[in-house]
Amino acid sequence: MAPRANWKGFLKIGELSCPVALYTAASTSERIAFHTINRATGHRVHRAFVDSDSGKPVEKDDQVKGFEIGSGEYVVLEPDEVAAAVPESDKTLSVSAFIGCSDVDDVYL
Predict the structure, then answer these.
(1) Which listed residue, of 46, 57, 67, 89, carries a Cα 20 to 30 Å from 99's Cα?
(2) Which residues contact 65 (CB under 8 A, 6 or more apart)?
(3) Cβ of 91: how many Cβ atoms within 10 Å?
(4) What phi and psi values does residue 25 have, to the nearest 5 degrees?
(5) Which is nearest to 63 in space by CA: 45, 50, 81, 82?
(6) pTM
(7) d(C-alpha 16, C-alpha 86), whole Å
């Protein structure tokens, strides 16, 4: 399996900006994906979103995010409202100064 980046962003030095990606250097285990299986039939089980009151499936287009403010009371947020509430992702590492190697503890080198 090809390695996946843990983080992707940009390194900015002055006016120069270049894309960077961080990868795990060492891992104690391989990435394993499990599926949920019906013990009786051996068939794969799929997750379905159902209305907690009616028990009927809810289509993806009819699902929204909500924050519970009381017992069974929710503030409903539309996708554009959720996106507006999320702070802008700062995926830029800005270098503001350089220091000499002698100023850095050996444990970090």
Answers:
(1) 89
(2) 76, 77, 79, 82
(3) 11
(4) -80, -35
(5) 50
(6) 0.44
(7) 27
Tens digits of residue pLDDT in 46-63: 888 999 899 899 998 999
Half-sphere exposure of 67 (CA within 13 A, CB side): 7
Nearest to 6 by CA among 18, 20, 21, 27: 21
Q: How confident is the model at residue 1 (pLDDT cuts 50, 70, 90)?
A: low
**Cα gap 28→31, rounded to integer Å:** 10
Domains of the chain: 7-84 (4.10.970)
**CA–CA distances in Å: residue 7 to residues 14, 20, 83, 99:** 22, 8, 20, 25
pLDDT class of 89 with cuts at 50, 70, 90: low
